Amino acid sequence: MMARFTDPEQMYPASPGKRLFARIIDSILPLGGAAALAVPLLSEASDHISDRIDAIERAGVNETVWLIDGTTGGYLAMVLGVFLGVGLLFEVLPVALWGTTLGKAMLGLKVLDMERQEPPSFGRAINRWLVYNLLSLVLVGIVNMILAVRDQPWRQGWHDKAAHTFVAGKGGPPAAAADPVGPAQ
């Protein structure tokens, strides 16, 4: 059973603004690492595709040139690998060990298991991270964040719901949760 907002030891959901700012901070390292590798590979990929097109034109044949082939697919895999590796190192491990990341720590936020009110297990931390990033890859992340802001009373995104976690902030219960609805059972 989930802890009730009337429990004095209860941690309360963090504000949406702090969560967004923490996410922006936490995104800098994985995106920066991926970009640092992608920028030099982009010119190599462009040269590779141009060379393929030139070779096909010289041969006088009608052939499709794919943007993702054995060469450019390898480049994409390297960039994605850096993004995932840095994300695992700077988000999954800190959340599983301490319940926080660099951005969340800067803003006094923690990721907690819904029932135990402790940092999530490694499995739940990786589940949370994978759901968030998979949703972001398909641009559903924006909808996920909007739903997290509107979700009451825990302000959970789909990644939090999948891992059974929430992001806690300092202070009292959110305004909507201060007056419980209906009798306690």
What's the helix and strand layout?
Layout: E1 12-13, H1 16-59, H2 70-98, H3 102-106, E2 110-113, H4 122-137, H5 141-150, H6 158-163, E3 165-169, H7 175-178
Antiparallel strand pairs: 1-3, 2-3
Helix pairs in contact: 1-2, 2-4
Fill in the keyword field for this structure.
single chain; 185 residues; three-stranded antiparallel beta sheet; elongated; 6% strand; mainly alpha
Explain this structure to me?
With 185 residues, this protein is mostly helical. It has one domain (12-57, 69-169). Helices cover 62% and strands 6% of the residues. It is built from 7 helices and 3 strands. Strands 1-3-2 form a 3-stranded antiparallel sheet. The protein starts with 11 loop residues before the first strand and ends in a 7-residue tail after the last helix. The mean pLDDT is 85. The chain crosses the membrane at residues 20-42, 75-99, 129-149. InterPro entries: Pra-immunoreactive (IPR051791), RDD (IPR010432). It holds the Pfam family RDD. Keywords: Cell membrane, Membrane, Transmembrane, Transmembrane helix. It comes from Streptomyces mimosae.
